[in-house]
Amino acid sequence: MTAQETGVMPDANVIRESLADPDRFAELYDRYAAQLYRYAYQRVGPQNAEDVVAETFLAAFEARRSYDPGRPEARPWLFGILTKKLARHHRSEKARLRALARAAPDAATPSPADRVAARVAAAGVAPQLAAALAGLPAATGRCC
Hints:
Elements: H1 3-6, H2 11-20, H3 26-44, H4 46-62, H5 75-103, H6 112-134
Helix pairs in contact: 3-4, 3-5, 4-5
């Protein structure tokens, strides 16, 4: 069913009118946000999907002057923008994870907090250790 058959203004007309009245662009959000969100949700999860969809509509709003008015439906255009935003998100996420991996402290090197905890624990058992050593028989000078 076409936009004219449903009585809904075609997307191209909404975009054209949004050039003079920016609030009109909200109609496209109302029409397509849920579809874009579902698509993004499957790829990046709920929180990131919200962000990517918001970035998509911002980019579309900023690029609305370049929209081809010969295309009555903006859905493919919006999904194209979303796909680019998702690709950029994946690239930046991979870069962030690589940076975290490089910046992660070496597991073999104890942190200052670990060293402090080890000293406190050692100080707590020092009297018991000293008493146990004092109770050992004296060395005889021969081995084994």
